[in-house]
Structures are given as structure tokens and as C-alpha cells.
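Action item from last week, closing it out:
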Amino acid sequence: MNLPENVKYTKEHEWIRLEGDVAYVGITDYAQEQLGDIVFVDIQSVGEVLEADDVFGTIEVVKTISDLFLPVSGEVLEQNAALEECPELVNQDPYGQGWIIRMKPAADASFGELLDAAAYKALINA
């Protein structure tokens, strides 16, 4: 299982990677493996300012729909347009081409409460 060191993780199985003043958010390799084949990603929150742990969208697999939770407070800037035609990118490359949203974290966004790779690994192996 792939657990990059350059991202932070949530207990809800999302990841966030800060690049300058914007961040990319997706679901973890573990989450996509547990969900199975992703058939649709629905993001209705572009342009909205949300709090940490708010639902920013959903992921649909063959048998269920799962909520996606924002790791930190901020504004949802865009959805990964490639997922409209190829939602399976989330399965194939969850930390790269399969990112789900790009966001601008709030000035007071709390990255300190997120998990590093070792803490996330301990969580999923518990």
C-alpha cells in the first residue's frame, strides 16, 4: 500500500498536499482499495467555503455512495475535471492524477491535527 510522506492524512481516509497557497485533496490508497471500482465522483461544493470535516462531495462505487470530508477549513477552488470522464483515476493513481479537489486553505487551517504517514498506517492497521 502506498503511503507518501509528503501528504497529511485524516481518520476519514482523505489526504491533503499543500503546494504553495493551494492544496490538493483526494482519498487514500487504502480507501480506494476498500471501496473498489469508482464509477462517479460528484463535487457540488466548488466555490464554497467549508469547515474542516464538512462533506465536500461524494464518491460512487458499484454498490454504495461515500461522503468525502474536507481535511481543513477553506475554499473549494476546483474539481479534477479528468474524473468526469475517467473516475477510475482515483483507483489507479490516488495521490497523483486521481486527486479530487484543489482548495485554498483558510488562514487558520489546522494542519496540526492531521496524521502523518506513520500515524495513518497505525490507524489502518489497528
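Closing note: The beta strands are 8-9, 14-19, 22-27, 38-42, 49-50, 55-61, 65-69, 74-79, 101-105.
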